[in-house]
Protein backbone atom coordinates (compact mmCIF):
# COMPACT_ATOMS: atom_id res chain seq x y z
CA UNK A 1 0.00 0.00 0.00
CA UNK A 2 1.40 3.42 -0.88
CA UNK A 3 2.09 5.88 1.95
CA UNK A 4 -0.73 8.15 0.75
CA UNK A 5 -3.30 5.33 0.72
CA UNK A 6 -2.25 4.09 4.15
CA UNK A 7 -2.44 7.67 5.46
CA UNK A 8 -5.94 8.10 4.00
CA UNK A 9 -7.21 4.91 5.66
CA UNK A 10 -6.29 6.50 9.01
CA UNK A 11 -8.58 9.44 8.24
CA UNK A 12 -11.86 7.56 8.07
CA UNK A 13 -13.66 10.70 9.10
CA UNK A 14 -12.87 12.14 5.64
CA UNK A 15 -14.50 9.13 3.95
CA UNK A 16 -17.44 9.41 6.35
CA UNK A 17 -17.80 13.09 5.58
CA UNK A 18 -17.81 12.49 1.81
CA UNK A 19 -20.29 9.64 2.21
CA UNK A 20 -22.56 11.74 4.43
CA UNK A 21 -22.68 14.59 1.91
CA UNK A 22 -23.34 12.18 -0.97
CA UNK A 23 -26.12 10.37 0.93
CA UNK A 24 -27.71 13.61 2.12
CA UNK A 25 -27.91 15.46 -1.18
CA UNK A 26 -31.27 15.24 -2.99
CA UNK A 27 -30.97 13.14 -6.22
CA UNK A 28 -32.97 15.82 -8.08
CA UNK A 29 -30.22 18.33 -7.29
CA UNK A 30 -27.53 16.00 -8.62
CA UNK A 31 -29.61 15.42 -11.76
CA UNK A 32 -30.20 19.12 -12.39
CA UNK A 33 -26.58 20.12 -11.75
CA UNK A 34 -25.37 17.48 -14.21
CA UNK A 35 -28.06 18.55 -16.70
CA UNK A 36 -26.75 22.14 -16.49
CA UNK A 37 -23.25 20.85 -17.00
CA UNK A 38 -24.06 18.84 -20.14
CA UNK A 39 -26.08 21.74 -21.59
CA UNK A 40 -22.91 23.81 -21.29
CA UNK A 41 -20.88 21.07 -22.99
CA UNK A 42 -23.40 20.66 -25.80
CA UNK A 43 -23.54 24.41 -26.51
CA UNK A 44 -19.73 24.40 -26.61
CA UNK A 45 -19.46 21.33 -28.85
CA UNK A 46 -21.98 22.67 -31.37
CA UNK A 47 -20.33 26.11 -31.36
CA UNK A 48 -16.85 24.82 -32.15
CA UNK A 49 -18.29 22.76 -35.04
CA UNK A 50 -20.12 25.84 -36.38
CA UNK A 51 -23.41 23.94 -36.41
CA UNK A 52 -26.23 26.19 -37.59
CA UNK A 53 -29.76 26.02 -36.26
CA UNK A 54 -31.92 26.55 -33.21
CA UNK A 55 -32.34 25.18 -29.70
CA UNK A 56 -35.56 23.19 -29.32
CA UNK A 57 -36.70 22.14 -25.84
CA UNK A 58 -39.72 19.85 -25.41
CA UNK A 59 -40.88 19.99 -21.77
CA UNK A 60 -40.03 23.38 -20.27
CA UNK A 61 -42.00 23.24 -17.00
CA UNK A 62 -40.88 26.31 -14.99
CA UNK A 63 -38.10 27.19 -17.45
CA UNK A 64 -35.02 26.26 -15.40
CA UNK A 65 -33.13 24.36 -18.11
CA UNK A 66 -34.40 26.75 -20.79
CA UNK A 67 -33.02 29.77 -18.88
CA UNK A 68 -29.77 27.92 -18.25
CA UNK A 69 -29.35 27.16 -21.94
CA UNK A 70 -29.78 30.83 -22.82
CA UNK A 71 -27.29 31.84 -20.12
CA UNK A 72 -24.70 29.37 -21.38
CA UNK A 73 -25.17 30.57 -24.95
CA UNK A 74 -24.69 34.19 -23.91
CA UNK A 75 -21.64 33.53 -21.75
CA UNK A 76 -19.77 31.24 -24.08
CA UNK A 77 -19.08 34.14 -26.44
CA UNK A 78 -16.16 34.66 -24.02
CA UNK A 79 -14.69 31.24 -24.89
CA UNK A 80 -15.78 30.65 -28.47
CA UNK A 81 -16.11 34.17 -29.87
CA UNK A 82 -19.14 35.22 -31.91
CA UNK A 83 -21.19 32.22 -32.97
CA UNK A 84 -23.91 31.68 -35.52
CA UNK A 85 -27.25 33.26 -34.61
CA UNK A 86 -29.68 30.94 -32.91
CA UNK A 87 -33.16 31.17 -31.50
CA UNK A 88 -34.51 29.29 -28.46
CA UNK A 89 -37.84 27.49 -28.71
CA UNK A 90 -39.65 25.94 -25.76
CA UNK A 91 -42.72 23.70 -26.14
CA UNK A 92 -44.94 22.71 -23.24
CA UNK A 93 -48.60 22.38 -22.31
CA UNK A 94 -47.74 24.28 -19.11
CA UNK A 95 -50.54 22.09 -17.67
CA UNK A 96 -48.62 18.86 -17.13
CA UNK A 97 -48.89 15.60 -19.06
CA UNK A 98 -52.62 15.61 -19.82
CA UNK A 99 -54.17 12.21 -20.47
CA UNK A 100 -51.58 9.47 -20.83
CA UNK A 101 -51.88 6.12 -22.58
CA UNK A 102 -52.36 3.39 -19.95
CA UNK A 103 -48.97 1.83 -20.72
CA UNK A 104 -47.31 5.25 -20.17
CA UNK A 105 -48.31 5.41 -16.52
CA UNK A 106 -45.25 5.71 -14.36
CA UNK A 107 -45.12 5.81 -10.55
CA UNK A 108 -42.95 8.93 -10.45
CA UNK A 109 -44.47 11.07 -13.26
CA UNK A 110 -48.00 10.67 -11.95
CA UNK A 111 -46.83 11.71 -8.46
CA UNK A 112 -45.20 15.00 -9.44
CA UNK A 113 -47.37 18.02 -10.22
CA UNK A 114 -46.05 19.36 -13.53
CA UNK A 115 -48.55 22.21 -13.77
CA UNK A 116 -46.82 25.53 -14.42
CA UNK A 117 -47.85 28.95 -15.64
CA UNK A 118 -46.73 30.38 -18.97
CA UNK A 119 -46.91 34.01 -17.78
CA UNK A 120 -44.59 33.23 -14.87
CA UNK A 121 -42.21 31.26 -17.12
CA UNK A 122 -42.21 34.06 -19.76
CA UNK A 123 -41.33 36.61 -17.09
CA UNK A 124 -38.52 34.44 -15.77
CA UNK A 125 -37.06 33.88 -19.25
CA UNK A 126 -37.41 37.53 -20.33
CA UNK A 127 -35.16 38.57 -17.44
CA UNK A 128 -32.42 36.22 -18.63
CA UNK A 129 -32.84 36.49 -22.40
CA UNK A 130 -32.33 40.25 -22.95
CA UNK A 131 -31.33 40.33 -26.67
CA UNK A 132 -31.45 36.57 -27.18
CA UNK A 133 -34.42 35.59 -29.33
CA UNK A 134 -36.79 33.01 -27.88
CA UNK A 135 -40.33 31.73 -28.26
CA UNK A 136 -42.52 29.66 -25.96
CA UNK A 137 -45.26 27.58 -27.54
CA UNK A 138 -48.11 26.56 -25.25
CA UNK A 139 -50.15 23.44 -25.90
CA UNK A 140 -50.14 19.67 -25.88
CA UNK A 141 -47.71 18.42 -28.52
CA UNK A 142 -50.49 16.55 -30.32
CA UNK A 143 -51.95 20.01 -31.12
CA UNK A 144 -48.99 22.43 -31.06
CA UNK A 145 -46.61 20.38 -33.21
CA UNK A 146 -48.91 19.38 -36.06
CA UNK A 147 -48.27 22.52 -38.13
CA UNK A 148 -44.58 21.58 -38.46
CA UNK A 149 -41.34 23.47 -37.73
CA UNK A 150 -41.58 25.94 -40.65
CA UNK A 151 -44.80 27.37 -39.15
CA UNK A 152 -42.63 28.62 -36.24
CA UNK A 153 -39.77 29.75 -38.49
CA UNK A 154 -37.58 26.76 -37.61
CA UNK A 155 -35.35 25.48 -40.39
CA UNK A 156 -32.49 23.55 -38.75
CA UNK A 157 -31.99 22.24 -35.24
CA UNK A 158 -28.67 22.58 -33.48
CA UNK A 159 -29.73 21.16 -30.09
CA UNK A 160 -32.88 19.13 -29.37
CA UNK A 161 -33.71 18.57 -25.73
CA UNK A 162 -36.44 15.98 -25.01
CA UNK A 163 -37.60 16.43 -21.41
CA UNK A 164 -41.27 15.45 -21.62
CA UNK A 165 -40.81 11.96 -20.18
CA UNK A 166 -43.39 9.85 -22.07
CA UNK A 167 -43.27 7.80 -25.28
CA UNK A 168 -46.11 9.63 -27.07
CA UNK A 169 -44.86 13.15 -26.27
CA UNK A 170 -41.29 12.24 -27.31
CA UNK A 171 -42.52 10.55 -30.51
CA UNK A 172 -44.50 13.70 -31.43
CA UNK A 173 -41.45 15.88 -30.72
CA UNK A 174 -39.15 13.71 -32.88
CA UNK A 175 -41.62 13.69 -35.75
CA UNK A 176 -41.80 17.51 -35.56
CA UNK A 177 -37.99 17.76 -35.61
CA UNK A 178 -37.39 15.25 -38.40
CA UNK A 179 -36.83 17.75 -41.23
CA UNK A 180 -34.66 20.02 -39.03
CA UNK A 181 -32.09 17.39 -38.03
CA UNK A 182 -28.67 17.48 -39.69
CA UNK A 183 -25.30 15.87 -39.16
CA UNK A 184 -23.96 17.40 -35.94
CA UNK A 185 -27.35 18.03 -34.27
CA UNK A 186 -27.12 17.11 -30.59
CA UNK A 187 -30.08 15.25 -29.07
CA UNK A 188 -30.46 15.24 -25.28
CA UNK A 189 -32.71 12.58 -23.79
CA UNK A 190 -33.70 13.11 -20.19
CA UNK A 191 -35.18 10.04 -18.48
CA UNK A 192 -33.61 7.73 -21.07
CA UNK A 193 -33.71 4.68 -18.79
CA UNK A 194 -37.23 5.02 -17.34
CA UNK A 195 -39.83 2.24 -17.33
CA UNK A 196 -37.35 -0.17 -15.73
CA UNK A 197 -34.92 0.22 -18.59
CA UNK A 198 -37.38 -1.04 -21.24
CA UNK A 199 -35.82 0.03 -24.57
CA UNK A 200 -39.26 0.07 -26.25
CA UNK A 201 -41.01 2.37 -23.77
CA UNK A 202 -40.76 6.02 -22.76
CA UNK A 203 -38.30 8.43 -24.37
CA UNK A 204 -35.93 5.52 -25.18
CA UNK A 205 -38.62 3.70 -27.19
CA UNK A 206 -39.61 6.82 -29.13
CA UNK A 207 -35.96 7.61 -29.94
CA UNK A 208 -35.20 4.05 -31.07
CA UNK A 209 -38.28 3.93 -33.30
CA UNK A 210 -37.51 7.36 -34.77
CA UNK A 211 -33.86 6.77 -35.69
CA UNK A 212 -34.65 3.34 -37.14
CA UNK A 213 -37.54 4.62 -39.27
CA UNK A 214 -35.59 7.64 -40.54
CA UNK A 215 -32.30 5.73 -40.87
CA UNK A 216 -30.48 8.28 -38.75
CA UNK A 217 -27.09 7.24 -37.37
CA UNK A 218 -26.21 8.54 -33.92
CA UNK A 219 -23.28 8.24 -31.53
CA UNK A 220 -23.54 8.35 -27.76
CA UNK A 221 -21.58 11.33 -26.42
CA UNK A 222 -22.23 11.01 -22.68
CA UNK A 223 -24.65 10.08 -19.91
CA UNK A 224 -25.64 12.43 -17.09
CA UNK A 225 -27.63 12.66 -13.87
CA UNK A 226 -30.24 10.06 -12.98
CA UNK A 227 -30.44 8.45 -16.42
CA UNK A 228 -30.04 11.14 -19.08
CA UNK A 229 -28.10 10.58 -22.33
CA UNK A 230 -26.71 12.80 -25.05
CA UNK A 231 -26.33 11.73 -28.69
CA UNK A 232 -24.92 13.43 -31.75
CA UNK A 233 -26.28 12.73 -35.23
CA UNK A 234 -23.30 11.27 -37.05
CA UNK A 235 -24.84 10.47 -40.43
CA UNK A 236 -28.18 10.58 -42.18
C1 LIG B 1 -39.66 17.15 -16.38
S1 LIG B 1 -40.63 18.52 -16.85
C2 LIG B 1 -39.50 19.52 -17.78
C3 LIG B 1 -38.38 20.13 -16.94
C4 LIG B 1 -37.58 21.22 -17.59
N1 LIG B 1 -36.97 20.84 -18.86
C5 LIG B 1 -36.45 21.67 -16.65
O1 LIG B 1 -35.41 21.01 -16.60
O2 LIG B 1 -36.60 22.69 -15.98
C6 LIG B 1 -41.68 17.79 -18.05
C7 LIG B 1 -42.60 18.77 -18.78
O3 LIG B 1 -43.13 18.12 -19.94
C8 LIG B 1 -44.42 18.65 -20.19
N2 LIG B 1 -45.17 17.68 -21.03
C9 LIG B 1 -45.25 16.33 -20.86
N3 LIG B 1 -46.01 15.78 -21.83
C10 LIG B 1 -46.42 16.80 -22.64
C11 LIG B 1 -47.22 16.85 -23.83
N4 LIG B 1 -47.75 15.75 -24.38
N5 LIG B 1 -47.42 18.06 -24.41
C12 LIG B 1 -46.88 19.18 -23.86
N6 LIG B 1 -46.11 19.19 -22.74
C13 LIG B 1 -45.88 18.02 -22.13
C14 LIG B 1 -45.04 18.84 -18.80
O4 LIG B 1 -46.03 19.83 -18.82
C15 LIG B 1 -43.80 19.24 -17.97
O5 LIG B 1 -43.74 20.65 -17.81
Query: How do the strands line up in the largest sheet?
Result: 3-2-1-4-5-7-6
Helix coverage percent: 40-55%
Low-confidence stretches: none
Distinct small molecules: S-adenosylmethionine
Largest sheet: 7 strands, mixed
Distance between the termini: 52 Å
Q: In the CATH hierarchy, what is the class?
A: Alpha Beta
Would you identify the CATH architecture? 3-Layer(aba) Sandwich
Rg computed from alpha carbons, rounded to a whole number of angstroms: 19 Å
Average pLDDT number: 93
Number of strands: 7
Output the CATH topology: Rossmann fold
Your description of this structure?
This protein is α/β, with parallel strands linked by helices and about 240 residues long. The chain has a single domain (about 25-235), classed as Vaccinia Virus protein VP39 (Rossmann fold), CATH 3.40.50.150. Helix content is about 40%, strand content about 15%. The protein is built from 9 helices and 7 strands, in the order H-H-H-E-H-H-E-H-E-H-E-H-E-H-E-E. The protein has helices at about 5-10, 10-25, 25-50, 65-75, 75-80, 120-130, 140-145, 165-175, 200-215; strands at about 55-60, 90, 135-140, 155-160, 185-190, 215-225, 230-235. The chain has a 7-stranded mixed beta sheet, sandwiched between helices. A hairpin with a 3-residue loop joins strand 6 (about 215-225) and strand 7 (about 230-235). The termini are far apart. S-adenosylmethionine binds near residues 93 and 116. S-adenosylmethionine (SAM) binds near residues 92, 141 and 165. It comes from Shewanella woodyi (strain ATCC 51908 / MS32). It holds the Pfam family TylF. This is Methyltransferase. InterPro entries: SAM-dependent_MTases_sf, TylF_MeTrfase.
